[in-house]
UniProtKB/TrEMBL annotation, chain A:
<feature type="transmembrane region" description="Helical">
    <location>
        <begin position="311"/>
        <end position="334"/>
    </location>
</feature>
<dbReference type="Pfam" id="PF00528">
    <property type="entry name" value="BPD_transp_1"/>
</dbReference>
<feature type="domain" description="ABC transmembrane type-1">
    <location>
        <begin position="78"/>
        <end position="281"/>
    </location>
</feature>
<keyword id="KW-0997">Cell inner membrane</keyword>
<feature type="transmembrane region" description="Helical">
    <location>
        <begin position="543"/>
        <end position="563"/>
    </location>
</feature>
<feature type="transmembrane region" description="Helical">
    <location>
        <begin position="77"/>
        <end position="102"/>
    </location>
</feature>
<comment type="similarity">
    <text>Belongs to the binding-protein-dependent transport system permease family.</text>
</comment>
<feature type="transmembrane region" description="Helical">
    <location>
        <begin position="114"/>
        <end position="138"/>
    </location>
</feature>
<feature type="transmembrane region" description="Helical">
    <location>
        <begin position="497"/>
        <end position="523"/>
    </location>
</feature>
Automatic annotation (TrEMBL), chain B:
<dbReference type="GO" id="GO:0043190">
    <property type="term" value="C:ATP-binding cassette (ABC) transporter complex"/>
</dbReference>
<keyword id="KW-1278">Translocase</keyword>
<comment type="similarity">
    <text>Belongs to the ABC transporter superfamily. Spermidine/putrescine importer (TC 3.A.1.11.1) family.</text>
</comment>
<dbReference type="GO" id="GO:0016887">
    <property type="term" value="F:ATP hydrolysis activity"/>
</dbReference>
<dbReference type="InterPro" id="IPR027417">
    <property type="entry name" value="P-loop_NTPase"/>
</dbReference>
<dbReference type="GO" id="GO:0015417">
    <property type="term" value="F:ABC-type polyamine transporter activity"/>
</dbReference>
<keyword id="KW-0813">Transport</keyword>
<comment type="function">
    <text>Part of the ABC transporter complex PotABCD involved in spermidine/putrescine import. Responsible for energy coupling to the transport system.</text>
</comment>
<dbReference type="InterPro" id="IPR008995">
    <property type="entry name" value="Mo/tungstate-bd_C_term_dom"/>
</dbReference>
Length: 575, 359
């Protein structure tokens, strides 16, 4: 081509840029480490210090107390937490894998609607899910009372309470983790493997035992670890069903009783368990994985053909749909009920639209909504900035300490919300460098900080997944065309990753809106978030207002899920 | 246009050697190809020229300018990537305009240049399309337009044809060569396809395991391979091992394990190789240089054997002939002559000037 290029060799030489220095990487990465150090590691460490100190000197007395057989409350709590978690894994596994096989491998009336609704539990904020189960199946719940009236019994035929209630709620809210991995794994199973086995003379049962189950094992183990962790961290279910002897409840009780040392000790022990599981999970994910990439015929769903089978499957589908939708339905119904009007009746008798009007007009009722929106937005902005930077660094840059960054960023994900709350209290109840010499506990900033820490992994993971899918050469192409690092990040990398970032950010935002577990430990009267307000209204028997808040939360979540689905559906970004 | 000089360039990846001591001078306006099997270091070398890697040792010069450690965005290069690396969130026009926007040219100027570039690659009217609405060949041409529109000093092409189907590959190959000739831009082309390299290049650098095997024009590379690797990687070749029997009067006589003797010329000994009487020697003979001899013909470099495999391809007849323990591949253009069948005796004549001594 003719000359006329704006980049002549002489102008090239003079522009040596800061961004091309080999140490630029560390300039980019060090703020990330600083933030993680300040708001994840330091609080964790402070909690540990608090647990290992009595009156300012080192002592293991707290741990001795914890494990002492004299006062067995703590050991009992640890044991209960573990066995609730184990049973949750088993029940979630059976329901989740069963659903996955049913929906992936069989064709029956009602399959389509069921396969959409199967993810509904994901849309319920933790507190809302538990509350709706209590309304539906609790001691004075709608279903037991309805059955009682219907059958003319003296007492309710059954009701959810205690550990049984916790397990049912866990199964309902956590089976989706098994369902998701199992259905992906089943879809990934190469049908020709089964055909090959059949051609070699294996029968159905043998194929299941030797081919299908072994190939699903990695997915199952991963989900089992995940569900175990989440069940260990579960706080709302034991709270609502009154199971005091679990680790999370014990921490909460110690904190409300002002025994901060014991709360710190319990937190530290729970942290150790959680981080241990995180490490096992990461190790396991890096170990073998049977993903086969072969193309060819896809699985045909076996159609349920017999008449009886059809009726049975249809009935079961309807039952499934009802069970999945009832929690949402009951919440909406109750949100229209007049506060205090529902006592011994099956369903509330008086209805009103007032709660919804109140939400937006009564300044006292509106305040928690405004708080949640504001605090969650702030946290999300922080998450975007640090999540995207960290994801970019982790995927694209080479630097010392990369594995460390990867692990540090996932630690808050493994930590139960209760522990995050206790950690922040331990770290920021005195002024220090990281809090810019402010006492954060009791201030406005502590809750956004908690949301930021808890939801950072969400943005990090969805963004880094997007970066991983993105071809490095697009960025190189931009560079070869003369773009500086910053220019190509702005014009190419960021726009291409935008959908992934947005999905993660929206998710973090709604999680913040629904967050309860950490909030309940650190909120103050001025910063009460929506979930805590729901909880307070519940105990003031203002069910209507509580459910109106809950419906609003659910609406927000549904909007976000809808938008993310749209975004992900539209993004054929990676060629 | 500008020349490119690699001055004893080496690249280590940790302790693993990427490329070793690459020392070449690519002339201004030349079409220069890096050819070799995957993992031979050709892409590594290209990426050092582009600035995505910095050499561990040695220098890279664009003309008089030392660019060894210059970041890629300051080199004024145009690069076409194997997967095109088009920006999926931008339109065709925006993709091509990207480099001009970086250079802060006026809107008017950008529009003119992009339109001209799109016309050049026969994509006028496609400016508003999205990338995923284009076929593979069209994407390829957008990538080419994007690289050329910035009027680069050097055009770098990293296996640009490998994602296209056979027919499109042929077309695009001609297209690229046409553009290169028209614009006269210094071009460096990376490929593992020897036919592509032969057809397009002014000169070829053959690489293996990070080391240069031979640099030369397609004819030099094909006709006078430096070593066994080059001889076998490019085109087909008979590689035989024999013992030097006599060196006399610029002629070399080689005896093979069985009872036949070949004579070749001293000028066909690979550079940096000396032959000694009584030592082993590797020779290379191209199948198409072998001629069919008359049955009764006798004399120097005529051998007889039994046809082990006879293959009629239409264009040619290919034979594998068993001569004692050795097999000789030969290829005759199909002129309608008789095709020998397996088991028949075939007499072959090997011209002296077609015997290459690889050392």
């Amino acid at each position: 081509m003719k000359s006329g290029s704006t980049f002549t060799p002489s102008t090239l030489r003079r522009r040596t840029s800061f961004t091309s220095s080999p140490y630029f990487v560390y300039v980019l990465v060090s703020p990330l480490f600083l933030v993680l150090l300040a708001y994840v590691i330091y609080p964790l460490f402070q909690t540990f210090i608090e647990s290992a100190q009595i009156d300012g000197s080192f002592s293991l007395q707290n741990y001795k107390d914890f494990f002492s057989l004299g006062n067995s409350a703590n050991l009992e709590a640890l044991w209960t937490s573990i066995y609730i978690s184990v049973f949750s894994v088993i029940t979630c596994g059976i329901v989740g894998v069963g659903m996955a096989f049913l929906l992936e491998r069989y064709e029956f009336p009602g399959r389509k609607i069921l396969s959409v609704l199967v993810m509904v539990p994901m849309a319920l904020p933790p507190l809302i899910g538990v509350l709706s189960f209590d309304f539906l199946y609790g001691k004075s719940g709608i279903i037991p009372r309805a059955l009682q009236a219907l059958l003319g019994l003296d007492q309710v035929p059954f009701s959810l309470s205690g550990i049984g209630g916790v397990l049912v709620v866990h199964t309902f809210t956590m089976y989706t983790y098994f369902y998701m991995t199992a259905s992906t794994a089943i879809r990934g199973l190469d049908p020709s493997l089964e055909e090959a086995a059949a051609s070699l003379g294996a029968n159905r049962f043998y194929i299941w035992r030797r081919i299908i189950l072994p190939m699903l094992t990695p997915a199952m183990v991963a989900s089992a670890l995940l569900v175990f962790m989440i069940a260990m961290a579960s706080y709302t279910a034991p709270l609502v069903f009154g199971v005091e002897r679990t680790m999370t409840m014990q921490i909460y009780l110690s904190r409300t009783n002002g025994d901060l040392d014991m709360a710190a000790t319990q937190s530290t022990i729970l942290s150790v368990v959680s981080i241990l599981f995180l490490i096992i999970m990461r190790w396991y994910q890096n170990a073998r994985n049977y993903q086969n990439m072969s193309k060819g015929v896809s699985v045909h769903r076996t159609e349920v053909k017999s008449k009886v089978g059809k009726y049975i499957s249809m009935a079961l589908s309807i039952l499934g749909v009802v069970i999945l939708l009832l929690p949402i339905l009951v919440l909406i119904i109750l949100s229209f009920s007049e506060d205090g009007s529902w006592t011994v009746e099956i369903l509330p008798t008086k209805y009103t639209f007032a709660h919804y009007i109140e939400l937006f007009t009564d300044s006292e009722t509106w305040k928690p909504i405004a708080n949640s929106l504001e605090m969650s937005s702030l946290a999300t902005i922080g998450n975007i900035i640090f999540g995207v930077a960290a994801a970019y660094a982790a995927v694209r840059l080479k630097f010392k300490g990369k594995t460390l960054l990867d692990i540090l960023i996932m630690v808050p994900w493994a930590l139960p919300g209760t522990v995050v709350g206790i950690n922040l209290i331990a770290a920021f109840s005195q002024p220090n460098v990281f809090s810019f010499n402010q006492v954060l506990v009791g201030s406005f900033w502590i809750i956004p900080l908690a949301y930021f820490v808890r939801h950072l992994p969400l943005v990090f993971r969805s963004t880094s997944a997007t970066f991983m899918q993105m071809d490095v050469s697009t960025e190189e192409a931009a560079r070869s065309l003369g773009a500086t690092w910053w220019y190509s990040f702005r014009r190419v990398v960021f726009p291409m990753a935008f959908s992934g970032i947005l999905v993660g950010a929206l998710l973090a935002f709604v999680q913040g809106i629904g967050e309860f577990v950490a909030s309940i430990l650190i909120y103050s009267a001025d910063t009460t978030p929506m979930s805590v307000a729901i909880f307070q209204r519940m105990y003031a028997f203002e069910f209507g207002t509580a459910c109106a808040y809950g419906s609003l939360q659910m609406l927000l979540i549904l909007i976000v899920l809808f938008i993310s689905q749209k975004i992900q559906g539209n993004s054929n970004i990676t060629i | 246009m500008i020349s490119v000089k690699l001055d004893h360039v080496s690249k280590m990846f940790g302790t693993v050697k990427g490329v070793e001591d690459i020392d070449i001078h690519i002339r201004s306006g030349e079409f220069f190809t890096f050819l070799g099997p995957s993992g031979c270091g050709k892409t590594t070398t290209l990426r050092m020229i582009a600035g995505f890697y910095y050499p561990t040792e040695g220098r890279i010069m664009f003309g008089e300018q030392d660019v060894t450690y210059l970041p890629p965005n300051k080199r004024n290069i145009g690069m076409v990537f194997q997967n095109y690396a088009l920006f999926p969130h931008l339109t065709v026009f925006e993709n091509v305009a990207f480099g001009l926007q970086v250079r802060k040219q006026s809107k008017q100027e950008i529009k003119e240049k992009v339109d001209r570039a799109l016309k050049l690659v026969h994509l006028d009217g496609y400016g508003n399309r999205r990338i995923d609405q284009l076929s593979g060949g069209q994407q390829q041409r957008v990538a080419l337009a994007r690289a050329l529109v910035i009027e680069p000093q050097i055009l770098l092409l990293d296996e640009p044809l490998s994602n296209l189907d056979a027919k499109l590959r042929e077309e695009t190959r001609v297209e690229i060569k046409r553009l290169q000739l028209e614009l006269g831009v210094t071009t460096i082309y990376v490929t593992h396809d020897q036919a592509e390299a032969m057809a397009m290049s002014d000169r070829i650098m053959v690489m293996k395991n990070g080391v240069i095997q031979q640099v030369g024009t397609p004819q030099e590379i094909y006709n006078r391979p430096n070593n066994e690797f080059v001889a076998s990687f490019i085109g087909e070749s008979n590689l035989l091992e024999g013992i030097v029997e006599e060196i006399h009067d610029q002629q070399i006589r080689v005896r093979f394990s069985s009872d036949w003797v070949l004579t070749g010329l001293q000028e066909n000994v690979a550079p940096k190789t000396t032959l000694t009487k009584g030592e082993k020697v590797k020779i290379s003979i191209r199948p198409e240089s072998i001629r069919e001899a008359k049955t009764e013909e006798n004399g120097e470099n005529i051998v007889r054997g039994k046809v082990a495999l006879s293959e009629f391809t239409g264009v040619s007849v290919n034979y594998i002939t068993q001569i004692g323990e050795l097999q000789l591949k030969s290829m005759f253009i199909n002129l309608g002559n008789r095709v020998y069948q397996r088991g028949e005796e075939l007499a072959l004549s090997i011209p002296k000037e077609s015997v290459y001594f690889l050392g």
